[in-house]
Task: structure prediction
Amino acid sequence: MAIEIKDKELKEMFEHGLYFHGHLCPAMPLGLRAGLLALRTLGVGRSQDKELMLLAETAEGHAMACFLDGLMMATGCTYGKGNVKKLRYGKLAFTLIDRKGKRQVRVNVKGEFVLNALKTSPFIAKRKAGVPPQEVEREMAEMAVNKIINLPEEELFNIGEVTPIEPKPAKGTFEAYPCEGCGEAVYAKWIRVKDKKFYCIPCSGYKGNKDA
Ligand SMILES: [Zn+2]
Ligand SMILES: [Zn+2]
Result:
């Protein structure tokens, strides 16, 4: 058996996604499909910069973590660019915001699908038994992936209404100063002042909110 993906866009996403994610599992391609569905629903392309914002309701833990990698791959929203926020609700769900079009849509993986997979998937049974995803037999992992690739969208996802939103503007940071302690460059917003000198957060000993 091999992985067969007829849709050209999904096939390309899957190849890049697998390289980025690091192992073969069903939750990453589930995230890919969910992300592509949200893009299509909003009628937008992948986020090149911060045109889109992803609010993921995932938390830590294998399936949710893998799902988010698929979402990031599909939508182009990444932790590095700062247009992903994890809400940690413990759900396979997310809202994709189109900042330019001022619209958003929420997608969630159907409850009955998640609960059924947790009970019946041989891949998940291996994971429950403590087998790391990269050590699950190739054929079993491929079977799980093929299932996700081939199930009709309506069996996997609920799609919410597209609703209007007033998004916050995304600002760049172009001002930095050297730290008196370590000499490393620190972006202005994160400078801490001690005895009228500029320090980075670790050198200043500051323990407060790092984003203020
Ligand atoms: Zn995974
Ligand atoms: Zn420093």
Remarks:
- The longest strand covers residues 103-109.
